[in-house]
Write a structure and sequence with these properties.
115 residues; alpha+beta; 2 domains; three-stranded mixed beta sheet; 2 helices; 7 strands; elongated
Length: 115
């Protein structure tokens, strides 16, 4: 069993090649002589992606709570603390039907029907 490393194997003309590298956050399982280690750590990109999904969910819940139709376009303002999510502005706008997106709000996203 591998406790502090991640192993991978690949076939080559000369046989089996093994590579072992250290992994800090991992899940390890063994069965029938095979050990698999998965890196379970989250990098900055994955954390940001999770925050975008949470924002989209909050905005779409807010749309529903305010009685907007599924096709209504909105102007979206997100908290200043979430300004780094503007790197994903096109994705956020597409998923929330926002015509504009700003990051100068207070503690929660706000929406206004556009047009």
């Amino acid at each position: 069993m591998i406790h502090s490393a991640c192993a991978s194997r690949s076939a080559s003309a000369r046989g089996i090649v093994s590579t072992i590298r250290s992994v800090s956050a991992r899940a390890v399982a063994s069965a029938d002589g095979v050990t698999v280690a998965l890196a379970t750590g989250l990098d900055d990109d994955l954390l940001a992606e999770g925050r975008v999904y949470e924002l989209i969910h909050r905005v779409n819940s807010l749309r529903k709570e305010t009685g907007l139709a599924l096709t209504d376009r909105i102007a979206l303002t997100i908290p200043r603390a979430d300004a780094d999510l503007l790197a994903h502005a096109e994705w956020i706008k597409a998923e929330t039907l926002a015509t504009s997106l700003e990051a100068n709000g207070g503690d929660a996203p706000t929406i206004v029907r556009a047009g």
